[in-house]
Write a structure and sequence with these properties.
α1 crosses α6 and α3 packs antiparallel against α4. It is built from 7 helices and 6 strands. Strands 1, 2, 3, 4, 5 and 6 form a 6-stranded mixed β-sheet that branches. By secondary structure, it is an alpha/beta fold. The protein has one domain: Alpha-Beta Complex (Maf protein), CATH 3.90.950.
Length: 173
C-alpha cells in the first residue's frame, strides 16, 4: 500500500508514518507537494479542516496512491474558552471515503495571539518569540507551549490516527 502525504514537511511525514506504524504491513509513506487551497495561516476550524481535506484529495490527483493524507495546522477561537488556540486537523481519503481527525487544541499566549490576529503567521511568530528557526519543522508550537510534553509530531499523529478510523475498522459503514 502506498500513502501520499500532502506536504514535504518532515514532521508531517513522520507523524503519518507514526500513525500508520500500528497497521500490519505498514504502508510506504511518501511526501507529495500539493496545495492546501486555504490561506497560509488558516483561521478557524472550518478553514483548517478544509486545508487538510484538500491536501488529502490533491495527493490522489498527483499520483498513484492508495490513500492520500492531508495535515493542516491553524488557529481558531473556540466557543468553550477565551483566547486563540492552535488547532490541527488531518484527513485521509481513498477517493471514496474520507476520514477526519483532530489533534489537541492549545491556547496561544496573549503576545503570540495578538500578532497572529494582526495577520502574522504562527510559525514565524513562534520562531521570533523562541529565537530559533523553523519551529514548525521541529517541536512546533505544541512542543514549545507544553514544555515538550506534546510535540508537533505526536499531536499530528493523533490527528492522523483519528482520520484513519474508516480505513482500519468497520464501525463507519
Amino acid at each position: 500500500m502506498r500513502v501520499g502525504v500532502g506536504s514535504t514537511n518532515p514532521v508531517k511525514l513522520s507523524a503519518t508514518e507514526s500513525a500508520l506504524s500500528a497497521i500490519a504491513d505498514a504502508p510506504v509513506v511518501e511526501p507529495v507537494a500539493v496545495d492546501s487551497g486555504v490561506s497560509e495561516q488558516p483561521v478557524g476550524e472550518r478553514e483548517t479542516a478544509a486545508g487538510a481535506e484538500n491536501r488529502a484529495r490533491n495527493v490522489l490527483d498527483a499520483g498513484e496512491y492508495d490513500l492520500g493524507a492531508g495535515l493542516e495546522g491553524g488557529v481558531a477561537e473556540v466557543e468553550a474558552a477565551d483566547g486563540l488556540f492552535l488547532t490541527m486537523w488531518a484527513a485521509v481519503t481513498d477517493g471514496d471515503r474520507l476520514g477526519r481527525g483532530a489533534g489537541p487544541r492549545l491556547r496561544l499566549p496573549d503576545a503570540v495571539a495578538t500578532r497572529v490576529r494582526a495577520g502574522e503567521e504562527l510559525g514565524p511568530v513562534m520562531d521570533d518569540v523562541l529565537g530559533i528557526d523553523d519551529v514548525a519543522e521541529k517541536q512546533g508550537a505544541a512542543g514549545a507551549l507544553t514544555g515538550g510534553i506534546v510535540d508537533r509530531e505526536r499531536a499530528l499523529a493523533q490527528a492522523v490516527a483519528g482520520a484513519l478510523g474508516p480505513f482500519v475498522t468497520d464501525r463507519y459503514e
